Amino acid sequence: MVSRPVGPPLLDLLPDLRVVANYGAGYELVDVEACRARGVVVTNTPGAVNAPTADLAFALMLAVRRRIAEGDRYVRAGRWGGGWAEEELIGDDVSGATLGIVGFGGIGQAVARRARAFGMRLLYWKRSRLSAGEERERGVAYRELDDLLREADVVTLHVPHTHETRALIDRRRLALMREGACLVNTARGAIVDEDALVDELVAGRLRAGLDVFVHEPRVPEQLFDLPNVVLVPHLGTALVSAREAMTRVLVDNLLAVERGETPPNVVT
C-alpha cells in the first residue's frame, strides 16, 4: 500500500485478509486498530528509507542555504554576467551552522551522521531523550522543541505523522524560529501548519526546502514564485536502490506471514 486508505470499509470487503504490507515507513493511512481487531498483521519497510531520505534532507539544506535553485534559475534566465556570483545570490554556511533535528529515529540519526561530516552543531528533540552516553556518542545535544526552534539555523523534520504530531510545527512554533532560518520537511506535510508556513515564506522571514505537502499533489500556489523555498515532489525514496530495498523488505514480511512466522517489521 502507498496512498490508499485502509480502514473498516475496505477491510470489511476482505474477510480473509491476513496482512497489510505497507510499502514505505509511514503508515498513517492504515487503521492499525481496525486491522488488529480483525487479526490482520500490518507491516512496513522502515530501515530501507533511512539513507535516501537523509540524503534528500541534506540536499534541501544545501539547496536553500547555498541558493542553488535560485542560481540555476538565474543562469537559465540569462542574467549571469560572468565571474563571481552577484551579491543577491550570496548564501549562508552549512558548515558550522546549528542543525535542529526534530525526531531522532533512523532517518534523524542518518541526517546527524551526514551533518557531523559538515561540522554542524547538532541539536535534537524526541519524546524519549537519549542517555548521556548516547548523546556523546552521536555528538548531539537535547533541547525541548521550542528551544530547539529558537536556536537552530536549520530545522529538519523526521517524526511520523500521528494524531500527536499533526501540526506539531504550528503558527506559534514557526514564529519562534529566527529570521532567515530554514525549515526542511521530508517527513509528512501535515506535521506543519501549511497555511502558517506559507505566510512566513511569503513574508520572507523564513526559508524552506519541502518534499511533502498536506494535500499532495496540490502545492500552495503562493509558493511557486518565491525565491526562498525549494519544492520537490516527494522524492525521499526516489532511488532505484531504495525502491529495490523497500521491495525486498516488503517481500520478506509477506513470506514470513505465509510461513506462519512473525514478520521482521510488524506495526501492530
Secondary-structure topology with pairs:
Elements (H helix, E strand, L loop, with lengths): L7 H5 L6 E3 L10 H6 L3 E3 L6 H16 L2 H9 L21 E5 L3 H12 L3 E5 L6 H7 L2 E2 L2 H7 L2 E4 L13 H6 L5 E4 L8 H10 L3 E4 L18 E3 L8 H19 L10
Parallel strand pairs: 1-2, 3-4, 3-6, 4-5, 6-7, 7-8, 8-9
Q: What this model shows, in words?
A:
With 268 residues, the protein is of the alpha/beta class. The chain folds into 2 domains: 8-44 and 239-258, NAD(P)-binding Rossmann-like Domain (Rossmann fold, 3-Layer(aba) Sandwich); 49-231, Rossmann fold (3-Layer(aba) Sandwich), CATH 3.40.50.720. The protein contains 10 helices and 9 strands. The chain has helices at 8-12, 32-37, 50-65, 68-76, 106-117, 132-138, 145-151, 171-176, 194-203, 240-258; strands spanning 19-21, 41-43, 98-102, 121-125, 141-142, 154-157, 182-185, 207-210, 229-231. The longest helix has 19 residues, at 240-258. The two termini are 16 Å apart.
> Strands of the biggest beta sheet: in what spatial order?
5-4-3-6-7-8-9
* SSE succession: HEHEHHEHEHEHEHEHEEH
Structural class based on helices, strands and sheet pairing: alpha/beta
Tell me what portion of residues adopts beta-strand conformation.
5-15%
Globally, the shape reads: globular
Mean pLDDT: 95
CATH fold name of the largest domain: Rossmann fold
So how many helices? 10
* Whole-number tally of structural domains: 2
Indicate the CATH architecture of the largest domain: 3-Layer(aba) Sandwich
User: What is the CATH class of the largest domain?
Assistant: Alpha Beta
